[in-house]
Amino acid sequence: MTRLKLSLLLLAAILISGALWHRYKPLPDGLALHSLRHPASNLKLLVDDTWETPQGTRDMRQTIFDEVFRLIEQAEQLVVVDMFLFNDFLGAGSRAHRPLAEQLTAALEARRQQGVPVVLITDPVNTLYGGLKSAHLQRLQTAGVKVVISPLNALRDSNPSWSGLWRLCCQWLGNNPDGGWLPNPMGPGQITLRSYLTLLNFKANHRKTLVVDEGDQWTGLVTSANPHDGSSAHSNIGLRFSGPAAQALLESELTILDMAGAERPPLPALSTPSSPPANASIEILTEGAIRDALLETVDRSRDGDVLDVSVFYLSHRPLINALKAAHQRGVTVRVLLDPNKDAFGRQKNGIPNRQVGAELKDAGITVRWCNTRGEQCHTKMLMLTRQTDAQLILGSANFTRRNLDNLNMETSVRLTATSDHPVMRASSDMFLRRWQNRNDEKHSVGYHAYADEAQWKKGLYRVMEFSGWSSF
To answer: The whole model's pTM is what?
Structure first.
């Protein structure tokens, strides 16, 4: 009996120590990047809008992937693209507005056939962690595209109460795309139990970036949009830019190749603009550096400033507290949230946004909900507007523990410019168009439309956020 107790204690010690190590272990080199502040050139704000018309139908206006495909088509020396969801899964009852996975596959395939080196970095969720074949990825590999599946095991564990056991018992099992017998939760086909066991780790390369050569310089694009058919009607945001900041973005992506043990492509020598604009600068932010920039920007706000937030998920406790403190300082804080009711044909329960919305409303902050009709309000942005200057943070990262605390791989940017800069005006116009339902476009509804102040749900949100047993 004593031997059994000692064995159980030893097993518990191994599980707990392993879980703690993988939760707090050092990050791989090159992650949590906060680049230098680079002069910003060739800037363009890219917005995908979806709204309800006065006739009650859905309408939309899209620019993000049009620009992605334009940049890929003109590239002559290198294309590097990193996208989280890259598949044609729709989910039960969902429909595609646009076949984005096929369009991106065709664009990359065509460029590679013209002799341009192409690197695609993506998340293993697109093969259900090896439990399903991806026709798009196989087609690109056949065309000669370097396809790199992000090595998630190198990341910290966001769900240590499961991942400690999984790393001990299950990660060594591998997977089999021909052995599926369970339903695919994301679309057609069958997957293995091992796919489900891996899915419970809730970690991802959640980045959405593109870097290409454009003329004699690098051009980058950072966005919240996925080339995923089921996401093709979502509202999203992105930013295009050129010069040294795009080169810094490229280096941040090549870091993932290093992590995966993949060979880096030869890099052409491209010039830097000789006279960059002096009225705007841009910083590349990845992983925890995004959190630090968000908190720094909010903490910088003062009485008379305006903070506009539009995000798919808001649950990060330090950021929520910072927004409430800014409101108490006299900052005008406006928060536009997805109601968390739709997920690819399935109904969600509103957690965490409705609980956070109630907390912000109780603090005196004005909250509105996106008027979603099956799609998601997938934008991730925070903008600080002062009398003479402004800061805009946008990209892949939701404002959650998993997205901001060095658990997922994420990429956002921070643009600093004069408050009357064209991109800042465009960003403000976008937010107000959605906030005020301008031009007979019903983008949002008032707080009471989706208010949910049930105490047990508030408690559940806090437990889910703390423990990692959640998709946010």
So the answer is: 0.96
